[in-house]
Amino acid sequence: MVFFHVNTKRVKRCRYNVLVLFLIHLALIGTVLLTHPSTCVANTPLGPGRETGEADLSVITLQANKIPWIGNREIVAVKLIRDQWSFRNHSFHSRTDNRRLSAREWLEETRSVITINAGQFDTDYRHLGWFIRDGTNIGSRQHPIWKGIFASRATDTTRHPTMTIVDLQVSPQTLQAFPYREAVQSLMLFDSQRTIRVNRTGKFARRCIVAVDTDNNTYLIVTRGECTLWDLASYLLTCPLNLDRAMSMDGGAQAQIAIHTPTLNLDIPSFQIPIPCVIGFIPESVRPPEPIDPNR
């Protein structure tokens, strides 16, 4: 038999040195991730400021390096060309099993091309503020503070665009006279006067924003990392997208987007939690015609 003598003090010292080196290695990796965020949009490789997509849909990546972030600084903006898209709202209450789904699962179930999360909801997962589907509000009453309405499927397309943001502070609305069959209420981020409509806070979270530009194109904007709403609004007002007004949808883990086209497959984040309500987008070219209103 062979006996080996082990210096226990030296072993403990070696283990301590290895632990220190491992922690330093992790810190260095974290620094690289924070200062050099990924520029990959899901399965579609894009660099900062690059654009890809189809004729009526494009995906643009932006790097907001001058505002504070936790994690990845990349912003992904999906541009939908005016009058080429509309949306329909979906809620877990309409499912027979009342099961909530991720944005990707909602997309597959509803056969939408794009899905994003809707606005805020209460502890029973009921949408706070208007959540109008097929002309019926299945959310709560109009929220007195949140002044943004994201609307689609106009009852009179000769007078109203297919998708828009209505600022209730500028244009008050009632359910009875509202000229759209689909709508989601949430808070205004900034308005056409370039006024930021959220307070300065220290709350960092991932964000989901809907916006329209000066040509009435629609943008669906999600962040990969966490930032404050005020800082994000400040950046979006100065970025090259020429945005006119914007709304903030629910943030944090609920901030999700899923896209599937023949040339583009995207999920942000890649791991998605179940959410109770989504907005599903489809091209106008494949949307069925609106039912005839007998009162018109």
Overview of this protein structure:
This protein is an alpha+beta fold and 296 residues long. It has one domain (39-283). 16% of the residues lie in helices and 32% in strands. It contains 3 helices and 18 strands. It has helices at 8-35, 103-110, 229-238, and strands spanning 40-41, 44-45, 51-54, 57-63, 74-80, 85-91, 114-117, 131-133, 136-137, 148-154, 163-167, 180-190, 208-213, 218-223, 243-248, 257-260, 265-268, 277-283. The strands form 3 sheets. Strands 3, 4, 5, 8, 9, 10, 11, 12, 13, 14 and 15 form an 11-stranded antiparallel sheet that branches. Strands 6-18-7-16-17 form a 5-stranded antiparallel sheet, with helices on one face. The radius of gyration is 23 Å and the shape is globular. Residues 1-16, 24-52 and 291-296 have low confidence and may be disordered.
Which structural class fits the helix and strand makeup?
Answer: alpha+beta
Which H/E pattern describes the elements?
A: HEEEEEEHEEEEEEEEHEEEE
Q: Approximately how much beta-strand content do the residues carry?
A: 25-35%
Number of domains: 1
Poorly predicted segments: 1-16, 24-52, 291-296
Number of helices: 3
- Radius of gyration over alpha carbons? 23 Å
Share of helical residues: 10-25%
End-to-end gap:
100 Å
| Mean pLDDT, all residues | 84
Number of strands: 18
Q: Mind describing the biggest β-sheet?
A: 11 strands, antiparallel
Shape: globular
